Amino acid sequence: MTELHSAPFADLSGHEVYGLCKLRVDVFVVEQNCAYPELDGADEDASTVHFWHAEDGAVVSTLRLLRTENETRIGRVCTAASARGRGLSAQLMTAAIEHAGGADIVIGAQAHLEKWYSGFGFERSGPNYTEDSIPHLPMIRTAR
User: Fold this and answer.
1) Which helix (H) or strand (E) holds 64?
2) What is the reported pTM?
3) Cα–Cα distances in angstroms (integers) from residue 118 to residues 33, 111, 123, in the given order
C-alpha cells in the first residue's frame, strides 16, 4: 500500500531523509545523468515541507515545497521508475498546492513536462533555459 506523507525537515527520521535523498539521486543524478548539488541547504530550511509516498518502507515519489520571503516554490519532483504511471506525483502536487494556501507558486519545470504542470494551473512565465543539460522553463501558478 502506498501512503502519502508530509513533514518539515525537523520532523523527518534519518531513514526518511535517506529515502528522500536516495530517490532524488537515483532519478536526477543517475537516471538523468545530472551532476548537481543535491544537498543545497533548502531541504532543512524551517519553511520547507517535504511530501512523499512510501511503499513497503521505501520512498517512491517526492517533492518539496519551499517558502521564502519572496516566493513559494515546488521543486525536486520525482518518482521512482518502478512507480511511474500511477499518478503519485500528481497526488503530491495537489497536496503541496493545497498546503501553499493560495499563494503564488513558481517552478522550474523540465520543458517536456510543461503540459503536465499546466494541468495544475501553472503557466509559462519566461523563456526556456538549460539546467544541467536539460531544457527547462519557468512557470507560475497564480493565486486564485
Assistant:
1) strand 58-67
2) 0.88
3) 26, 11, 6
How far are the Cα atoms of 3, 23, 41, 44, 66 from residue 47, in angstroms, in the given order?
A: 23, 22, 12, 8, 6
Calculate mean pLDDT across residues 97-113.
93
pLDDT tens digits, one per residue of 37-71: 667 767 778 889 999 999 988 999 999 999 988 89
pLDDT of residue 41: 67
110 residue type, one letter: Q
Q: Residues 43, 118, 138, CA angle at the centre, nearest 5°?
A: 55
What is the C-alpha to C-alpha distance for residues 85 and 18, in angstroms, rounded to an integer? 24
- Rounded Cα gap, residues 53 and 6, in angstroms: 9
Q: How many CB atoms lie within 10 A of CB 99?
A: 15
Instruction: Report the SS3 class of residue 10.
Output: helix
